[in-house]
Amino acid sequence: HSESEEPLVVYRALYGGYGLWVRPLAMFMESVTKEGSTQPRFAL
Prior knowledge:
single chain; 4 strands; two-stranded antiparallel ribbon; 1 helix; mainly beta
C-alpha cells in the first residue's frame, strides 16, 4: 500500500468471472475456520 507500505497480493479467482483481487499479504496468508475446521484462507 502506498501510504502504509504494507505488502499486497494480487490474485485472480479461478471461478465465476475470474475477477482480479487485491488483499493485504497478512490477510491472504491467514487461516480461517470453516465448518469447524481451521484451514488456509487460500489453497491451490
